[in-house]
Amino acid sequence: MMLKSSVLALAAVGLVSAVPPAIAADQPAGGGYIGASLGQSKINDVCDGIVGTCDDKDTGWKIFGGYQFNRYFAVEGGYVDFGKATATDVSLGTPISGDAEGWGLFATGLAALPINEQFGVFAKAGLAYTKADVTVVVGGVSVSDDDSGTDLVYGVGAKFDFTKNFGMRVEFERFKDVGNSDSDVDLLSAGLVYKF
């Protein structure tokens, strides 16, 4: 999956670099932007081996800002909240429950391919510092742990500009090994963007 996404990102960068210089010269210089997105997160592999109930999906959201150098390239960073996964089980007659939640800070490069003046698609890749907090309750005794780490984040999306300053985007992102674990988190979100 990671190799496939990397190939897609490289293909998008290749398409962007193939834009004729005369066309690129006519495009606006770009500028700063801020935005917020809301959607569904999924913590992969967290339910593996659990016989009882497990919910690995929750509401995820992020706030972000960036600088668009031109219509084809931007850099952005922000904060993302992955929500919480919850599980309950029974082992040797003892009830067990647990939850895992996380957040992260990210910085990415974004390669865009405009389809027309308002609509375009993009691919992005970069790094994310993420933290995961896990709490397990066994027979009424609670144990908590947390860990953090830095790993890859990448994704694809589409954007639509309502005006010169306001637009929206829909995107899918994967955050690798969140909190230095073996679990990736996927975020499918939609949001609004303000350009200034």
TrEMBL record:
Keywords: Signal. InterPro entries: OM_autotransptr_brl_dom, OMP/PagP_B-barrel, OmpA-like_TM_dom. One of its GO terms (cellular component) is cell outer membrane. Residues 1-24 form the signal peptide. SUPFAM superfamilies: OMPA-like (SSF56925). Residues 33-196 form the Outer membrane protein OmpA-like transmembrane domain. NCBIfam families: autotrans_barl. This is Outer membrane beta-barrel protein.
